[in-house]
Automatic annotation (TrEMBL):
This is Cytidylate kinase. GO terms for molecular function: ATP binding; dCMP kinase activity. It comes from Stakelama sediminis. Belongs to the cytidylate kinase family. Type 1 subfamily. One of its GO terms (cellular component) is cytoplasm. The gene is cmk. Gene3D superfamilies: P-loop containing nucleotide triphosphate hydrolases (3.40.50.300). One of its GO terms (biological process) is pyrimidine nucleotide metabolic process. InterPro entries: Cytidylate_kin, Cytidylate_kinase_dom, P-loop_NTPase. It catalyses: dCMP + ATP = dCDP + ADP; CMP + ATP = CDP + ADP. Keywords: ATP-binding, Cytoplasm, Kinase, Nucleotide-binding, Transferase. ATP binds at G11, P12, A13, A14, S15, G16, K17, G18, T19. Coiled coil: none annotated. Its main location: cytoplasm.
Length: 213
């Protein structure tokens, strides 16, 4: 690769952005950070300490954690995801996690990050930006089957309601709301297989890089 490349991948819950970001990381040989895990780590600490996620000071007190916590499979539960979307609305929580993400994005060899505000706040100068979307029902079907496979008994309607509530919180918060950056390419995965979505993502990244060369 001629130059270090930063790729920003944003989108709502279960749109497939993590799957695509991991595949792009493999394809380009770049390190990848799932930034949702940072907010999930704060949420897990809040839950463990029995604090109130809606209270900014409680959430801020939980922002100091080692990178090793990000490997904890306990961060991936739906309950932690829900609390993550509450703590992530606090400006002081976002500020506490900002430099960690910017450092990752700016490492010398390049990087891929996925989240909600990568193209808008964390890496506004990224070489390529994708905003990955899918309809709420399709995202809920994906998440439902993922949870069922993991042995978690939850109804489709519950999963759909959680997805809609999370979208609403993430898009309506005042600080760094989830939105497509003006220069991001839109990738709708609703009717694409994983393989087709990844191929499309690679084509979009290549087109962005060629356009900027
Ligand atoms: N194009 C696709 N077709 C079918 N299933 C998909 C597709 N993309 C991803 N999935 C599946 O949907 C689920 C959610 O995907 P993924 O974890 O990549 O989403 P995400 O946007 O990163 O979610 P979150 O923000 O909640 O972490 C996974 O089980 C994944 O295998
Ligand atoms: N850049 C980001 C990434 C995530 N969040 C918040 O964390 C929640 C969990 O994220 P997942 O990607 O693991 O689902 C998410 O709902 C957001 O509230 C964020 O604000 N910014």
């Amino acid at each position: 690769m001629a130059q270090p490349m930063i790729i920003a991948v944003d989108g709502p819950a279960a749109s497939g952005k993590g799957t695509i970001a991991r595949a792009l990381a493999r394809h380009y040989g770049l390190p990848h950070l799932d930034t949702g895990l940072l907010y999930r780590a704060v949420a897990a600490n809040v839950l463990r300490e029995e604090l109130d996620p809606a209270v900014e000071a409680d959430a801020v007190a939980c922002c100091d954690f080692p990178d090793s916590l990000l490997d904890d499979p306990g961060l991936r539960t739906d309950e932690v995801g829900k609390v993550a979307s509450i703590v992530s609305a606090h400006p002081l929580v976002r500020a506490a996690l900002l430099q960690r993400q910017k450092r990752f994005a700016q490492q010398p060899g390049g990087a891929i990050l996925d989240g909600r505000d990568i193209g808008t706040v964390i890496a506004p100068d990224a070489n390529a930006k994708l905003f990955v979307k899918a309809t709420p029902r399709i995202r809920a079907q994906r998440r439902h089957s993922e949870l069922r496979k993991a042995g978690i008994d939850v109804t489709f309607d519950r999963v759909l309601a959680d997805i809609r509530a999370r979208d609403d919180r993430d898009a309506k918060r005042t600080d760094a709301p989830m939105r497509q950056a003006a220069d991001a390419a839109l990738l709708d995965t609703s009717f694409l297989s994983i393989e087709a979505a990844v191929q499309r993502a690679i084509a979009l990244v290549e087109a962005r890089i060629a356009a900027k060369a």
